[in-house]
Specification:
Helix content: 25-40%
Number of helices: 11
Number of strands: 12
CATH architecture of the largest domain: Alpha-Beta Barrel
Radius of gyration: 30 Å
Protein name: N-acetylneuraminate synthase
GO molecular function, one term: N-acetylneuraminate synthase activity
CATH class of the largest domain: Alpha Beta
Enzyme class: transferase
InterPro entries: AFP_Neu5c_C_sf (IPR036732), Aldolase_TIM (IPR013785), PseI-like (IPR051690), PseI/NeuA/B-like_N (IPR013132), Pseudaminic_synth_PseI (IPR020030), SAF (IPR013974), SAF_AFP_Neu5Ac (IPR006190), SAF_PseI/NeuA/NeuB (IPR057736)
Domain AFP-like: 293-351
Length: 351
């Protein structure tokens, strides 16, 4: 199957908004289909899945290191969590077909080479490497070898580990990904706002010369909007139909109306960035006439001295610029002047 769309990312573009489904389908394909519909209606550019099985991502083991301590999944084993949260591979063709039918892009995070192959066969236009997999350089190289855009989350990674991942993506044979998108990410579920460190976004762009964005796990929409203001060109946020209905990631996911508000706000933020410039904007052009200028504030006879009592800086702006006030005060009027006249140099006798 050929790619239905070719994704391209570059600095300065409007934010590309990804609705992360993750396990919020709760094991029901109809809910997964409704999530795709909801993402489209909420203004997302793409829906992202996670393609793994419990056995491809972890081992079924009772050893302590396979148990989760703290956070929303406290007390569960990795295998148990991923068995519940995974998106069955048998669903993938129907999910891809449904997304295409309503005009929204769908792609996924592969967690092993067999997942890469499945997604490639289905025509996924990009691959996303999750934060926990950023250290799996063989997986990154294999995904990058398909010659498609690669998006990499950087949660928990050191600068050196990020460099290793970028190098692996760029060096993959036969194609490689010269400009992977790096998503700044804090892998806390949820992420406290004061742990976001969004200033890392432009630093990543500068350090690696690649497009950057944000994979966000905070509550609310303020953090993604701020990220766009700092240059994020990709925003990834979890979507759920209803937090009240639960789901493995529901507690830190947005509901459709919230995602729509985020999408609108992110796009407004990007539009508001504009460019560096000091030209008068069309919306303010009419206001120039109402800036301050020098006016005759009281009647002045020819030869009379201008003083603060008879010359003032007021609105509108048809008189001399206020910066000339010191030159005018102490000078004399060349003729009789009425109150309310805009002052010009023809009214002022040179000192």
């Amino acid at each position: 199957m050929s790619d239905p769309v070719r994704l391209e990312f570059h600095a300065g573009q409007a934010p590309y908004l990804i609705a992360e489904m993750s396990g919020n389908h709760k094991g029901e394909i109809e809910r997964a289909l409704r999530l795709i519909d909801a993402a489209k209606e909420a203004g997302a550019d793409a829906v992202k899945l996670q393609t793994y099985t419990a056995d491809t991502i972890t081992l079924k083991s009772d050893r302590p290191e396979f148990q989760i301590h703290g956070g929303p999944w406290d007390g569960r084993s990795l295998h148990e969590l991923y068995e519940e949260a995974h998106t069955p591979w048998a669903w993938h063709p129907q999910l891809f077909a449904h997304a295409a039918s309503i005009g929204i892009t769908l792609f996924s995070s592969p967690f092993d080479p067999t997942a890469v192959d499945l997604l490639d066969r289905l025509g996924a236009p990009a691959f996303k490497i999750a934060s926990y997999e950023i250290v799996d350089l063989p997986l990154i190289r294999y995904a990058a070898s398909k010659g498609k855009p690669l998006i990499i989350s950087t949660g928990m990674a050191t600068l050196g580990e990020i460099d290793d991942a970028v190098t692996a993506a760029r060096g993959a044979a036969p194609a490689g990904t010269p400009d992977p998108v790096l998503l700044h990410c804090t892998s806390g579920y949820p992420t406290p706002h004061d742990e976001c460190d969004l200033r890392t976004i432009p630093h990543l762009a500068q350090a690696f010369g690649v497009p950057t964005g944000l994979s966000d796990h905070t509550h609310g929409i303020a953090v993604p909007v701020a990220a766009v203001a700092l240059g994020a060109v990709v925003i990834e946020k979890h979507l759920t139909l209803s937090r009240a209905e639960g789901g493995v990631d529901a507690s830190f996911s947005l509901e459709p109306a919230e995602f729509k508000a985020m999408a609108e706000s992110c796009r407004v933020a990007h539009a508001a960035l504009g460019a560096v410039g000091y030209a008068v904007k069309p919306s303010e052009a009419g206001g120039r006439a109402f800036r301050r200028s020098l006016y005759v504030a009281a009647p002045v006879k020819a030869g009379e001295v201008f003083t603060p009592a008879n010359v003032r800086s007021v609105r509108p702006g048809l008189g001399l610029a206020p910066k000339h006030l010191d030159q005018v005060l102490g000078a004399r009027a060349t003729r009789d002047l009425d109150a309310g006249q805009p002052l010009d140099w023809g009214m002022v006798q040179p000192s």
